[in-house]
């Protein structure tokens, strides 16, 4: 990467095209979640099968994202963008016309192969386009675009599925993807010298088994249980392959993914905080929908509307926190944001059968407000310390480890919730049996059914509350680490010999 890039004229047009592309990729992901029940009914598949639309997407991301550091160094932004959007468009069309689940899954995974390249590519272009002192504001706008997708996704999905069916989710995205692809073809005109670097295919294999094994293993733990050989077997294979992959990268002159970037302390700290916070964030994304729909009986559309104010606030706050980051640094923002996250997580661990809808909205919105002050500032501060030559590796590592930590967080919280609910159900059942025996009255079959339902609901609520309580300690760990954040300054390459890899500043048509 050319570290002497002129920052006077950032390519705003190019960034706009890349951001719209990233937005529709994120939007498509958030649209699908609420449509899963409809897909199950239409294609006649069960929950364990349909969840592969999410798990498969994560697996493809986990396999491809580590290779993006190599791809960004090897190929121009134009070539990568066209390839990524072309794959995303192909997958969208396939999924939209799928009448069998295997074809839908193939389309979904093809989409994933495109979106896996888009995100690191956009972050890399932003890093080389702005000087360190202006990156906070730039990343804030980036966050506004990405947070906008979860803000409108659930509500838009509910409307489209209710009125047109789940296939419209893909048909809706298709024309937008075509326009964005054509804009990129005509506007992106960057040139790149041919670099003499080759892809280490054995590293790709190790990376695929390593990250793929971890993602699959932890993602499957919630359904199959930790004692399943599919779970512990794939996790063990992933750990072994990942260890081998890391050792191989450390001793290579031109590694596919450079783990030596962890020698930069602020980068290592930022990625640690991001991983821990991602695990805590999944408590709200995962547990709250279960609570409002399973226990409270709130409709999917109303559940999506409940999350809307928090998502909108997070999107609006993103550029504001970006400017605050440029002025004050990431430490104070992270401490305040994580303190809010810890407090709101604790309040979520006190849910009852009659917690009001308004109270849930306010609590979730405040929690999202806290998280909006952490994710982007912490990430940007860590990336700011890296020399420009390591930007592709830093962005690829960020995206990969967030995928892994998300899978781990999901599996951990689902397991905690399930185990707690099971043990609490047994306790409540024993108490009910003792009470019935002491009263001497023989309950009717209808009374027994009602009692079982009440016990199940109460046990599930206790499980959700306990999982939220555990997330308090996860968020608190991130809060402790935030006190060690310092404003990062870009360093020269202190790790080893500089290479000439990377992406030069892309140009738009007509720019000099």
TrEMBL record:
Key words, A-Z: Cell membrane, Membrane, Transmembrane, Transmembrane helix, Transport
Endpoints of the signal sequence: none
InterPro entries: EmrB-like, MFS, MFS_dom, MFS_trans_sf
One Pfam family, short name: MFS_1
Domain annotation Major facilitator superfamily (MFS) profile: ranges: 14-490
Subcellular location: Cell membrane
Top-rank taxon: Bacteria
Membrane-crossing segments per the record: 12-32, 52-73, 80-99, 111-130, 137-156, 168-187, 199-218, 230-247, 267-291, 303-320, 332-349, 361-379, 466-485
Bilayer topology term: Multi-pass membrane protein
Classification via PANTHER family: MAJOR FACILITATOR SUPERFAMILY MULTIDRUG TRANSPORTER MFSC
Family: Belongs to the major facilitator superfamily. EmrB family.
Name of the protein described by the UniProt record: DHA2 family efflux MFS transporter permease subunit
UniProt organism field: Bacillus suaedaesalsae
